[in-house]
Structures are given as structure tokens and as C-alpha cells.
Amino acid sequence: MKIFCVGRNYVAHAKELNNEIPEEPIIFMKPKSALLQAHTPFYYPEFTNELHYECELVLRISKNGKYIQDRFASKYYDAVTVGIDFTARDIQTELKEKGLPWEKAKAWDNSAAIGKWIPLQNVKNKKDLNFCLYKNKELVQQGNSSLMINSFDKVVAYISNYFSVNIGDLVFTGTPAGVGECVVGDELEAFIEDDSLLTIEIK
Fold this sequence. Notes:
By secondary structure, the chain is of the alpha+beta class. Helices cover 14% and strands 33% of the residues. It is built from four helices and 14 strands.
């Protein structure tokens, strides 16, 4: 199982971190060990002093493929959920300044959390899908799939040009504006439309 992630897929988020708008999808990966298992506590990592949440829509790959065309990409994923791409922002900033890879900031154990799956057949319009994140009952992030620079199909097709996609792989499709810090004791709750799909307490 592979975890693909898309960076800077919302204009407002790219701007809030003072990043350029990418001309093509920015892809990075997390290892299988990054996936926070269900019913497993999330512990604040010891190596960072600036842990950030990034709420995203996540796709579940349901068919093996490579070199997939955009128009066929929808056949390769069958469910969506909401996830949190946890980021050690202080570590990432240091790495970016040195021109080094981001893995230490993005790909550590339990840095990817996902909620309950919604079969795409139950989604009215995947191109107009609202999602949001609350921290301690306060709305901190909200987005809509229509605001993505690269759509679900575009992202899956693009990834498949470089990597085989396999059944069970996950695709984090990018975070909207509003990313921010979380500390021990914070409670995070993520929704798609009105459905609460993911709840995490930072321990």
C-alpha cells in the first residue's frame, strides 16, 4: 500500500505559505507506516515544536493501473474520505531552506490519518464536494473539490505516469487554506458535507 500526496493543489493554500502556484501537480509520498491505524492514539511527535494539521479529501484506489488517461481515471478509485496530513512545519521549513527532501517533516510514523470511507456511488457530485475541519469545536479549514487546481481524475492520471497505482493505495488530494498549529489536548474533527468521518485527540 502506497500513500500519494498532492502539494499546493489549492491556490489559497499555496499563497498562505508564500509558495508559487505549480504548473503541474506536486507529488510526494508517505510510507505505509505513516498511516494512523483505526482506534490508535495520535501522539505529538517528540522531534517537532510546530505540528500543523492539513485537512484533505482522500481517494481509495480500487483498480491496478499505469499510464492512465484522464478520461478513464475515475474507474480507478471507488471511495472518498477526509484525512489529515500532519506536518512538522518547523522541520519542513528548515529542509526547504536547505533544498532538502521533506520526508522528515511529512512521512513519519502515524503522520497520515483517514476517516470512514464514503463509496463514490453515494456521492452526488465529486466535483462539488464540501469538506471541513474543526479544532476544539471551532471551524479552522473548509474547502470544496471544485476549487482544486488539479481534479481527482487529473491527479490519479498524473500519478500513474510515474508510479503504478494499486488496489488499496491512498491519494491525499491537497489541503485548502487555513492550515495551522495543533498542540497536546486539541481535538480535531473532520467532515465531508454534514458527515463527521474523523475525530482525533492530540495526546
